[in-house]
Amino acid sequence: MRVAFDAQPTIGSATGIGEYARELRRALGELPGIDLVPLSAPSLDPWRFDRRAYWDQVLLPIAAARSHATILHCTSGTMPAISKVPIVLTLHDAAWLRVQGHTRFYARAYFGALMKRLAARAREIVTVSAFSAREILELHPGIDERHVHVIPLGVADEFANLRLGSGDGATILVVGTVEARKNLEVVIRALPALPGVRAISVGPSTPYRDACASIARELGVEDRLEFRGYVGRDALLELYATSTVLAMPSRYEGFGLPLAQARCAGLPAIAARGSSLDEIAGDSVPRIDADDVSAWSEALASLFADPERARRAAAADRAAAVDRFSWRRAAIATAELYRIAST
Fold it and tell me: Residues in domain Glycosyl transferase family (predicted)?
C-alpha cells in the first residue's frame, strides 16, 4: 500500500507532534507492505501560521495527489479542505477547542473551528489517549465514534537505553512548550520551599515565558530558574540523564510524551492529576492537583529528601513502561488503519 505521509512537522524545531511524525515514519518504514512517501517542504517554517496553512491547504494535497498514494496520513491535527486522496487524520488532542488563552483569533479559527468541521471528512481518525478520544467526540459532534482509534505514542529507544548520571545538583526538569496550559509557574512557586533546588525549562517559548520569569523575580528565585528553549535530541537526553526529577504540572495534555519518556528512562517523575496524564502515569508516578502549590512543594521536598528511593521506584517501573510505549506497536496499529481506510 502506498501512503502519502505528512512529514512537515519534522521540519525545524520539532516538538511532541514532530517527534510523533519522525518516529512513526521510521517505524512504519520497517513494516512490510507499506510504501511510505514522506511529504514536506523544508523551506516553509512550520511555526509560521501563513506557511502552515499554505502547506495544509495547497502544497500537501497537490503532493499527495502526485504521489499516486492510496491514503494520505495527516499527522499534526490539520488536513486539507479538498483532497483527492482519502485521509487518515491524527488529532492529538482538542486543546484548540477546550483550552482558553490562544489569543490569535485567526489561529484559533483555523486550528479550532475550521478543523472541527473538516475532521468529520477523514476516513479514520487516530488519537493518542482515551482522554483525547473522549474530548474529540464531545467537541466534534460530526465525528462518528466508530472511526476514532486510540493508538498511544511510543518512546524512542534512546530513552530506554539511557544511563542515568548523578548530575550537578538537585534539578527539576520541565519539558514542553512554555505556555499557560503547561503550568510551569506552579514549579516556580514551589522553589522558595526547596532551597538549593533549581528548575530547567526546555521547550519553545510563548509570551507566557515572560510571565514565568516575572514570577521568579518576585519570589527571588530567578537565579534558580533556567530557560533552555528548544534543544535537540542529544541535549534532551543529557538533561533526562542528569536531572533529579521530571515535573509535569500541565492543566491539559492530550498524551504527555515527556512523562512517558521519563518512565522509560527510569527518571523519577511527578505529574498533575487529570487530562491524559492519569493514563500515562499509571500507578508509578505521584499525581497532584495542577495548581496546588503546597502539594507540589511537599511532594518535591519529599523526593529531594530521599532521591535514591525515588530512583529505585522509577527503575522498577522502567521495563513495563518500555514495553507499553512502543513505536513498533503504534506503527502496526496505524498500518491496519490505513488498510481499513482504503477499503
Answer: 168-316
Strands (E), the chain: 2-6, 35-39, 71-74, 87-90, 124-127, 148-150, 171-175, 198-202, 225-229, 245-248, 269-272, 287-288
Within the chain, what is the greatest distance between any pair of CA atoms?
Answer: 61
Q: Residue 237 and residue 156: Cα distance in Å, rounded?
A: 11
157-324: CATH class: alpha beta
* Ranges of the chain with pLDDT below 50: none
β partners of residue 282 = none
Contact criterion met (CB below 8 Å) for 241 and 265: yes
Give CATH for domain 2-154+326-341: 3.40.50.2000
Give pLDDT tens digits for 64-112: 999 999 999 999 999 999 999 999 999 999 998 898 765 678 888 898 8
- Sequence-ordered list of residues with C-beta below 8 angstroms from that of 195, at least 6 positions apart, any chain: none
What are the boundaries of each domain within the chain?
2-154+326-341, 157-324
